Amino acid sequence: MSQRTFETILLETDETGIATLKINRPDKLNALNSRVLSELETAMKEVNSDEAIRVLLITGAGEKAFVAGADIKELNTLNKETGEMLASRGQKIFDAVENSKKPIIAIVNGYALGGGAELAMACHIRVATENALIGLPEVSLGLIPGYGGTQRLPALVGKSKAMEMILTGKPIKADAALQSGLVSAVLSIEEALEYAKKLAGAIMKNGPLALSAAIEAVNASGRANGFAREAVLFSELCETEDFTEGTSAFLEKRNAQFKGK
Ligand code: CO8
Question: For ligand 1, what atom is nearest to the CA of residue 64?
C-alpha cells in the first residue's frame, strides 16, 4: 500500500493496482477551490505515469458529500475574464480525467452538485451510494455549468432529462440517477467501495492497451465542440448582477432575488 498526501487530496494505491483518490475538504463538503483543482491536476498526472496503478477510484471524504460543487466563495468574485479562465482551466483538468488512459470509477457518496456532478460525469463509470444527490444547480446562482456539465449530462441521460435537470437546477436522488443512466449502480455506503473494487478487479483482467483504446474510442463518440461555447457563456454571466446576487445570497444564507440583469 502506498500513500501520497496533498493538502486537499488523498491518493492511496493498494498492492493490486487500485488507486483511490479522495477529495478531502469534508468541512466544506469537498467543494472544489483552486487548491483542489491544482492538486487534482497533479494527482492525475501522477496516476497516469505510475505504472503500478491500473484503475482509479475517485470519491469524497466523509459520508455526506462526493463534491458539493465549485467553491462558491471563489466564484463570487469572478468577472468575465477570470470566469472564462477558471471554466477553461477546470474543463482542461476534467478532460484529463475523461481522457485518462486508465479506467476511472467515481464513487458518488452523497452530494454531487455543480462541479461535483461534472467531476463525476468526467469519470468513466459512476456508482452511487443510497444517499447520493446529483445535480447542476448553477442556474440558482445565476450561472450555468462551466466544467463540461452542459456537454456531458445530455450525452449521459439524453437532452430532455438534461434540460430538465439544468433548467430546474434540482438534483436527483440515487435511484432516479440509476433509472436515467447517470450512474450504473446504487449501493449502501458500506458496500460501495467493495463493489467499486470488484468492478475494478473485473476491468483489470483485461488488456491495458485495449482498455485505453476503448476509453478513447467511446470518448470519441458523438463529441460536439460545445465546451468552448460553455466557457464563454459562463464567463459572460460572471458580469451580471444576477450572478453576484446568486452567489452572495448563498454565502449570506438567504434566498436570491434575481432581476434578470
Ligand atoms: N462552495 C463553498 N462552500 C460550500 C459549498 C460550495 N459549493 N457547498 C457547501 N459549502 C460549505 C458551506 O458554506 C458550509 O460552510 P460553513 O460551515 O463554513 O458555513 C459547509 O460547506 C457545510 O455546508 P452546509 O452547512 O450548507 O450543509 P447543509 O447540509 O446544510 O447543505 C448543501 C448541504 C445542500 C449541499 C449546501 O451546502 C449547498 O447548497 N451547497 C452549494 C451547492 C451548490 O450550489 N453547488 C454548485 C456550485 S456552482 C458550481 O459548481 C459551478 C461549477 C462550474 C464552475 C465553472 C468555472 C468557474
Answer: 29
User: Long-range contacts of range 48-51, CB-CB < 8 Å, 24 or more positions apart?
Assistant: 48/96, 48/100, 48/101, 48/102, 50/13, 50/19
Cα–Cα distance measured from residue 181 to residue 173, given in angstroms and rounded to the nearest whole number = 12
Q: What is the H or E stretch that residue 112 is in?
A: strand 111-113
Query: Does residue 138 line the site of ligand 1, with CB under 6 A?
Result: yes
How much is the pLDDT for 88? 93
Nearest ligand 1 atom, CA 234: 55
pLDDT along the chain (261 residues), means of 10: 92 97 98 97 97 97 96 93 94 97 98 98 98 98 96 97 98 98 97 98 92 88 76 90 93 91 88
Is the CB of residue 234 below 6 angstroms from any atom belonging to ligand 1? yes
Of the candidates 121, 105, 106, the residue with the CA atom closest to the CA atom of residue 154: 121
- Please give the CATH number for the structural domain made up of 2-204: 3.90.226.10
Active-site residue (options: 118, 164, 194, 230): 118
